[in-house]
Amino acid sequence: MTQPEDRNRGGAELPLIVFGPLLALGTFTALLALLAGLFGWHPDQMLVTAAAVGTAVVAGALALVYRQITQRQAVEGALHNVEARVSSMIEAAMDAIITVDESQHVVLFNAAAEAMFRCPREQAIGAPLARFIPERFRAGHERHVGRFGESGISSRRMGALRIVVGLRSDRGEFPIDASISQITESGKKFYTVILRDVTERIRAEEALRHSQTELRELAYATNSVREQEKSRIARELHDELGQALTALKLDLTWLSERLPAGQEAIAEKLGAMQAMIDGTVAATRRISADLRPMMLDDLGLVPAAEWLVQEFTQRTGIPCELRVASPELELKDPHATAVFRILQESLTNVARHAQAQRVEVALGRVDGSVTLNVRDNGRGFSLDDPRRPNAFGLMGLRERVSLLGGEIRIESQPGRGTVLYVQIPLEEGTQAQ
């Protein structure tokens, strides 16, 4: 855009063209007159020399002035082309672009801004920027722009911590994503904001959050039903099948005691049947405990965790130490079940993959949350490695923790073991009395 001082300089070129050569000619004429007086030149000789020198001086001056004018016209033409291209880009931009002066009145309003705010450019130019902001946000926005102007920062995003709201001419409000920049021109500040309507993005984010909430609720309900079904099956195995097997064992014992002498084959068969029943009873108890240990419901979390650690050591031969911050740490469901299952799955992962020689488990309560740490000195792994197909152990842990609004962190390096940190907040009334 051509500035006023540029036009003033353009008007000053005419005196330079007219008086520049005359001033140069007069200077050389005076110099020749001085030389003629010193060397005694004839007037005719001085006239011829003055004419020749004057012609050369005028021609050189005119050539210099013409060159300056040509260069200036080329620069002004290039500047005009740049301004035209910038204006074309601003008009073609998909985002709304608005420039305001120090008093926050609009001086530039592109076509996208017209469409976004449904306001003709003729009405927007010169209007206060507050016209496009809901009244409840105007004072805060004005202070925000003022602080930005004093900060010296050239540009930054607006509304990083909150939603910026725009106001259309029909008084309809809509969310926008905005960035602001500032420049100083001729001692005056101008602020340019680039705006994007994010209504569809906000709707998509809300739909995604709603979907995630529904999925979380569904997973929570599914997990609760699964635990209830496991508890029911464990009870039936322990109470009904276990009692039936015990009664059958007693009957076999009764038959063995009353078997006539000389029936060695029958006695051997009865002994084999007793051994099979003993194995079946043991398997039933193990399956029942894996499904849902009765002591978790009958005695609470700490005894169940102690049993789980002891059973892990007996089954794998890996020493496992359990540290409980408070023996009175008892939780109600679903927290007790979640902590028990997380510990159970963690120890299962150690037995399958860690190749550890020692495991340490710490159970406690900090700032209204239950904490569980499981540390092993096994081979570890890289957290950046892709998940193996059909390996859902860590995914299951994260799901259980997420369902209760907790946090889980895993630290591991190849050859340096693995540490699992779990923290689950306890809502009011979840701690057992």
Can you characterise this structure?
- This protein is α+β, with helices and mostly antiparallel strands and 433 residues long.
- 58% of the residues lie in helices and 17% in strands.
- It contains twelve helices and eleven strands.
- The protein has helices spanning 4-11, 13-39, 43-92, 111-117, 121-124, 135-151, 199-257, 264-291, 294-298, 301-316, 335-354, 393-403; strands at 96-100, 106-109, 155-158, 164-167, 173-185, 188-197, 320-324, 359-366, 369-376, 407-412, 418-425.
- A hairpin with a 5-residue loop joins β10 (407-412) and β11 (418-425).
- The longest helix has 59 residues, at 199-257.
- The chain is elongated and about 165 Å long.
Outline of the structure:
With 433 residues, this protein is an alpha+beta fold.
- Tell me the count of domains: 4
Could you name the ranges where pLDDT drops below 50 across 5 or more consecutive residues? 1-12, 428-433
Alpha-carbon distance between the termini? Answer: 78 Å
Radius of gyration: 45 Å
The SSE string, one letter per element, is HHHEEHHHEEEEHHHHEHEEHEE
Strand element count: 11
CATH class of the largest domain: Alpha Beta
CATH fold type of the largest domain: Heat Shock Protein 90
The CATH superfamily of the largest domain bears the name Histidine kinase-like ATPase, C-terminal domain
Largest sheet: 6 strands, antiparallel
